[in-house]
Amino acid sequence: MLKISWIVEREIAILKLIEHPHVLKLHDVYENKKYLYLVLEHVSGGELFDYLVKKGRLTPKEARKFFRQIISALDFCHSHSICHRDLKPENLLLDEKNNIRIADFGMASLQVGDSLLETSCG
């Protein structure tokens, strides 16, 4: 039987809770005795990090567009008590129209009530 880490289980559970146009979609999960397969939305534009390295400076219009999309997705996550906790350009993917998809919820956590998160990241 395949042993799945609690981090992967948590990421899958969190991704199942999120349906937002700027969060990478989890379509399905399959497993066999040896492997776990996550079927994720395909986005062809790569990481925002690589885009910034290649392009350099963003235009103000482009920066506003990315910022709005990131804030919209984070607001949605936070309204569902989900904290990403590892937001960086490498975890922001771009689709074919240069729209943001937040990815990699491996460090994410559900916040219960008004309590602070106590686990460390990194």
Description:
The protein is α+β, with helices and mostly antiparallel strands. The chain has a single domain, classed as Transferase(Phosphotransferase) domain 1 (Transferase(Phosphotransferase), domain 1), CATH 1.10.510. The chain is 33% helix and 17% strand. It is built from 3 helices and 6 strands, in the order αββααββββ. It has a two-stranded antiparallel sheet with strand order 1-2. A two-stranded antiparallel ribbon has the order 3-6. The radius of gyration is 16 Å and the shape is globular. It catalyses: L-seryl-[protein] + ATP = O-phospho-L-seryl-[protein] + ADP + H(+); L-threonyl-[protein] + ATP = O-phospho-L-threonyl-[protein] + ADP + H(+). Keywords: ATP-binding, Kinase, Nucleotide-binding, Serine/threonine-protein kinase, Transferase. It comes from Oncorhynchus mykiss. InterPro entries: Kinase-like_dom_sf, Prot_kinase_dom, Ser/Thr_kinase_AS. It is an enzyme of class 2 (transferase).
Overall form: globular
Helical content, roughly?
25-40%
SS elements, strand count: 6
> What string, H for helix and E for strand, traces the elements in order?
HEEHHEEEE
Strand arrangement within the widest β-sheet reads 1-2
Protein name: non-specific serine/threonine protein kinase
GO molecular function: ATP binding; protein serine/threonine kinase activity
Keywords: ATP-binding, Kinase, Nucleotide-binding, Serine/threonine-protein kinase, Transferase
Catalytic activity: L-seryl-[protein] + ATP = O-phospho-L-seryl-[protein] + ADP + H(+); L-threonyl-[protein] + ATP = O-phospho-L-threonyl-[protein] + ADP + H(+)
